[in-house]
Amino acid sequence: MPEVPSRITAVEVTLLDLPLLRPHRFAVTTMRTQGVLLIRVVTEDGVAGWGEGVVPGGPWWGGESVEGMAALIDRHLAPAVVGQDVLQPEAVARRLERLAAGAPFARAGVEMAVWDAAGRTLGVPVHQLLGGPHRDRVPVTWAVGSEPAEIVVDEVRRLVAEGRHRSFKLKMGAIPPEADVSRVVAIAEALDGAAPLAVDLNGAWDEYAARRWLPVLDDAGVQLVEQPLPAASVAGLARLRERSGLAIMADESLRTAADALRLVAGHAVDLLAVKIGKSGGLAAVQRIASIADAAGVGCYGGTAIETSLGTAASAHLFCATAAVRCGTELFGPLLLADDIATEPVTYAAGDLLLTTGPGFGITVDGDKVEKYRRR
Ligand SMILES: [Mg+2]
């Protein structure tokens, strides 16, 4: 370990647009390309660390966008990070939190680059800095967009037959509840138990719709519902949980550790969806996971659809965090038609494998960065 601090000397951002294999439909928007803000942190020892700022298809999720993040980091976050010790990523994260509380995705991207640079400075993988791995691979659920039933059934059948995924999450909320539920029931019946199914409403329903329709999804064999109600409806989630046999997972309702505390104290959830971006970084997710652990609630590792870089960062965090014991949806690199890594992350039999090199173990490919750089 270096005896003197290694100061961060520069933080640089590059905006990229990566193609998707197929459009990905959410309740409110359809993603056709994924904007990626690549963040590079350089230290006085000449070490470079990389981070990734992404949001799922635009500002609808939390108000941040890659364009906004680029300006915020450049003008406000970078000057606060330059001069800091690269071996204190959590201290850097807390400094950023004070500067830009409402911009967790931007903060997470910068913090990610600092963790990567810290690992590279010490020559160890980031999972070691986070307490060491509990597992060396994580199951990956495939998320299917809000497409018509036949398209979804074909996609799921093909992925199961190819041994690529063992569980599936269906996006809902893009069409009225009755038609949406018929669509999902048709999918569940066609698949006939071939793979566990979850649905994600992205907060699209009100409590009445959820009371009316969740039992139908339950009867059709759906096992889990993610964020049926809007983010603020913690008491509503608790009431649904009392009545429903479906496992209830919070995503939009969970951003901060204080949210996690409210959700578990209010008996509102069976599972918490944790993501590096929405909570402002790896250290913040570990605080949330500690609360989940204490409450006996499991965590599920979510994605904002990252390249291999952000996906590897999530894998290091989720493997090093015991409470993330309910699988992941780290499928970002599988939905992207190309990647920015010289060697993308590896999947095997429905699992994502933990990378082992220093930092996050990902080398950014300069040619790819040049190719996809926004002009
Ligand atoms: Mg979600």
TrEMBL record:
A GO molecular function held by the record: muconate cycloisomerase activity
PROSITE patterns: MR_MLE_2
Gene3D superfamilies tied to this protein: Enolase-like C-terminal domain (3.20.20.120), Enolase-like, N-terminal domain (3.30.390.10)
Mandelate racemase/muconate lactonizing enzyme C-terminal domain boundaries: 149-247
Cofactor: Mn(2+)
Keywords of the record: Aromatic hydrocarbons catabolism, Isomerase, Manganese, Metal-binding
GO biological process: amino acid catabolic process
Family affiliation: Belongs to the mandelate racemase/muconate lactonizing enzyme family.
Xref: NCBIfam families: mucon_cyclo
Name used for this protein in its record: Muconate cycloisomerase
Organism per entry: Prauserella shujinwangii
Highest classification ranks of the organism: Bacteria, Bacillati, Actinomycetota, Actinomycetes, Pseudonocardiales
